[in-house]
Amino acid sequence: MKAGTRSQVKALIRKGQVTVNGLPVKSPEMKIDENADQICVNGKSISYARHVYFMLNKPAGCVSATRDNHDKTVLQLMREQNGAMDGDPLLRELFPVGRLDKDTEGLLLITDDGELAHRLLSPAAHVEKTYYVEIDGPLSDAQQRSLQEGVDIGEKNLTRPALLKEAPELPFHHAAA
């Protein structure tokens, strides 16, 4: 729940409508512990989160971006599906951590925590990622070597070398009629 602007909250405090741990707040300068204190406005509990974190199973067809002039973004998708309203954490300045191509599906972290995003994406930190890929037929020796040596994706450096593992065959199941 969003309590209001700074001046609106001060007015609520003056009217005695804000409590901390069940006691009325007397001064807007009161210090609180956002992790331990219970804050209520007009009897309704409010919470504070310094950062928010969402995991999205990104579907094909939307882009891993905050804005796009042509395609639906992962943020638009999340906000539409959840009917984001005033005070909703989905209305924060969120961004995807990393990217998946438009036609790629997979787990994507969405947050407003820039420090965490930097730690996860920084080449110096090198956080290992796992991708599951389905292809028609086996990779040629040259294709395997290319992945294992790093791929040119149009940036300054090649991608990091890939470790290739063939997934075990999954048993085929069909529903009984």
Brief write-up:
By secondary structure, this protein is of the alpha+beta class. The chain is built from 4 helices and 7 strands; from the N terminus they run αβββββαββαα. A hairpin with an 8-residue loop joins strand 6 (95-97) and strand 7 (106-111).
Walk me through what this model shows:
The chain has 177 residues and is α+β, with helices and mostly antiparallel strands. 20% of the residues lie in helices and 15% in strands. The protein has a 4-stranded antiparallel β-sheet. The longest helix has 9 residues. The radius of gyration is 24 Å and the shape is elongated. It starts with 5 loop residues before the first helix and ends in a 28-residue tail after the last helix. The mean pLDDT is 85.
**If you compute it from the alpha carbons, what radius of gyration comes out, rounded to the nearest whole angstrom?**
24 Å
Strand order, main sheet: write it out.
2-1-3-4
Sketch the topology as an H/E string, one letter per element. Answer: HEEEEEHEEHH
Helix and strand content put the structural class at alpha+beta
Helical residues, percent: 10-25%
